[in-house]
Amino acid sequence: MKTDEFVNLLAAGETPVPGDVAFRRFSMAIAVALVGSAILMLTIYGIRPDIGGVARTPIFWAKVAFPLSLAIGAAMAVGRLARPATRVGFSLPLMTAPVLVVWIAAAALVMAAVPEARMSLIFGQTWRSCPLNILLLSTPGFVAMIWAMRGLAPTRPRRAGAAAGLLASAIGTLVYCLHCPEMSPAFWGIWYLLGLLLPTVIGALLGPRLLRW
């Protein structure tokens, strides 16, 4: 068989890939992440009983804004890294800026507090369990993000896996805010961040295997 005939045979029956395939896959993955994390949170932990009152305070919405802004930046990174030979681009400052803001707020809060209150601001009541709780709530999203990426064409699987883990953990943290009683930026800047980093590191480690073509 001649080369031209072989190429024509391979191309026979091929149809163009829909332009919105990445959007549809990641929209489905994000929906699975939100619903799955919410079901786990309600089943295992439950919503904090004073959510109605605390939701009327600015500090609660500052806490929610932290993982939400990270999720937006991570979603942009995931969308870019799912395509061949692309870079993270502008999504990188979108992911680092919320962390810097929380760290600045945490430092100001701790320095302004009396020495006796500083440890409480940093460790709160749930520092032992918080990162692992976030890791658990990130599981549905991590599986969904890897599924979404496997149907596309990432050429940097380690970075793509890390971005998928960060997006999953940001969504898990966002849902966890409905349960978590901690209201100190100093707590979020350490223990929330650790919970966010665990799935990110796992994604980076597993990306080359899970996202291999």
UniProtKB/TrEMBL annotation:
InterPro entries to which the protein is assigned, alphabetical: NrsF
UniProt keyword Plastid present: no
Domain of life: Bacteria
Spans through the membrane: 26-47, 59-78, 90-114, 134-153, 160-178, 190-211
Keywords on record: Membrane, Transmembrane, Transmembrane helix
Organism: Pandoraea anhela
Name of the protein this chain belongs to: Anti-sigma F factor
